[in-house]
Amino acid sequence: MYDVTIVGGGPAGAIAAHRAAKAGLSVLVLEKAKYPRDKPCGGGVSQKALSVIGKIDKELVERELFGARIFLSDHRNFTEILDDRIAITTMRRNLDHWLIKRAEAAGAVVRDCEGVTDLHVSKDYAEVVTSGNRYRSRIVIGSDGVNSTVARKSGIRKRWDDGIGICLEAEVELGETLVEECVGTEIAEFYFVGDWGYGWVFPKSDRISIGVGGWKTEIHEPKRFFERFAGDVSRQKGIDIKSRIRRVNSYRIPAGGFDRRIVGDRVLLAGDAAGFVDPFLGEGMYYAMKSGEIAADTVVDAARDDRFSEEYLQRYVMRCEEEFNYDLRSALKFANVVYGHQNLFLKILERDRRLFREYLRVVRGDRTYTDFNRWCIMRSPVTLARLVI
């Protein structure tokens, strides 16, 4: 019997496995796909997410990003660049594989191609069932994404009730020269193409990530929406991006900031499985990694005290609240205001570059959404207070 079984070997699971194994626990990671595997994602990793990982191999960094360019609906655009790195872009198949290999080197047992089909929790242990095996452990971390089997089979959550977004994304090979002509080397591009979402273009070494995302209830015919966006960007850039797209990935995003149950007896949820995603940007890497880190610490304490009840695991809930979940509520308020008054907000952002720079510092991790909202109110009580409150 293991101390902890981690279901899902993405960033949340890999960070939790590495940390728990280093603390001396016996750790099993179950991943349904075979490493290295592709993951639908734009591939942007913020500086605050990198601070959770620690030092990574240089080969994982496709581009370093220092700024962003915003495109308005009439194709006008404006750019801000910081002196400090905001994020990197990476290939998720490479980053996730590196993270899980690091966990394995720390002592975690990793079994890929083992999708979990069921979960049974008893007084003495939790049993995870896969297509060919059964594994027992003292506790289970569910880091198996938006469609979490652990959440459903444990009874923590049967379905999502609110706050679900949808994204469509494609990797498009252009070659290094065309990437630089298309978007540049040190910035990401954001296109506000709808009332409740945005499109993006992220540069990588020899390709771009292009995608659209927004609230699921607001995006009708998502595939056609993506195709129109790719066509518009192609025409605007003078580069035939649309015809180079070979595959479009779609995935759901559970926006954070909502009150949700994330623990049960001998079970806790991390990352997308818990609904920890920035509701404005749709960025989930930092919250996945940070919740994985906190989950590992909680499991170490639970194993030491031999206490695995839902009541005891509330300490995980409280620490997530302190570290980031309270701020996700501020981010949700910000998202509702911006998407509800998008044209007005973009006009202010275009005219007030200090506001733009300060928001980039939120993305980087220097500011929280809570601090940023307060700063906006103090900066302009008449205009910005109406947007933020």
Structural notes for this entry:
The chain has helices at residues 11-22, 47-53, 92-105, 149-154, 176-182, 222-237, 285-305, 314-340, 342-351, 353-364, 369-379, 384-388; strands at 2-7, 27-30, 44-46, 63-65, 67-71, 77-81, 87-89, 109-111, 116-121, 126-130, 134-142, 164-173, 187-194, 197-203, 207-215, 249-254, 263-264, 267-269. By secondary structure, it is an alpha/beta fold. The chain has three domains: 2-43 and 91-160 and 258-329, FAD/NAD(P)-binding domain (3-Layer(bba) Sandwich); 65-88 and 164-254, D-Amino Acid Oxidase, subunit A, domain 2 (D-Amino Acid Oxidase, Chain A, domain 2, 2-Layer Sandwich); 341-388, no CATH class. The strands form three sheets. Strands 1, 2, 8, 9, 10, 11, 17 and 18 form an eight-stranded mixed sheet that branches. Strands 6-5-13-14-15-12-16 form a seven-stranded mixed sheet, sandwiched between helices. A hairpin with a 4-residue loop joins strand 9 and strand 10 (126-130). Helix 2 (47-53) packs parallel to helix 7 (285-305) and helix 9 (342-351) packs across helix 10.
